[in-house]
Amino acid sequence: MSTDQPPVALCNYCGLRPAGSHEHLPGVAALNDTPVTVRFLRPSRGGFQHVERVEPEGFVVRTICRQCNQRTGGSYGAAFKEFALQFAASGALAAGHQRAWISLREIQPLRVLKQIAAMVLAAQANLSLTRWSELRQFVLRRDQRLASAERRFYLYRNTSSIGRITSFTGMAFLRVSPPLAPMFFSEISWPPLGIVCSLGRHPLLERMKDITAWGQYAFRSRDSFGFSVPQLSVEANWPLAFGSEAEADRWIERLGVATTVQSATEVDAPTQLSALIRRHRAPSA
Question: Which residues 6+ apart lie within 8 Å of 114 measured at CB?
């Protein structure tokens, strides 16, 4: 009789200890602490099918060990919460066509970017420790600045009440003239904050706010910012497709969008196939 056991998944941060800690993605400070319905895409014959399940305590992943979860949350969590609250409080002021003005006062840019990078790492269902080594070290070493601009970070404002989280994926555009280069990215969108981490720059991301430079601040530094971001509605599973599902379908058809996904199930890799997340209404007092 075979005694082979399935390999134990290692923590996406340290790569040493077994993963398994229930990591809220994003954290509970971002109102991710009530039941949610998760709808994701699962490959089927001739395309995809939608599958749904309910998470009773918010959207969680099991890709981080408990020690790393506690360590990074303690170092970056408060700074990210401050940033997220200010971002949410901004945006009422219009800044041009379908854009909103964001005003941030005395935030800690490096800590915020480290927490964003930590969230991106946690969202990866099948992470190569070697390929992600630079970002892992950026997260684990609190004083380390972002070593290169190979991976870039962008913000937009999610005007819907729906979240969307997608593991790192590739996207090609088959019907665009002149041709658009393929892009590789991960998306974490939790209203009203939308985040994209991409491998290099791409024309489709130019309208978003590039915050990669925050990775060059000192750990204790604070700074204030004012900038505009696009206002985009998340309603479809397909990553970076905005508006209603019909509008997303038209965008996919017009550009000939093809997205690579890895084989996974809703149980062991809920983010791999682009999870669409609806928060349940809080019970009445």
Answer: 72, 75, 76, 138, 139, 142
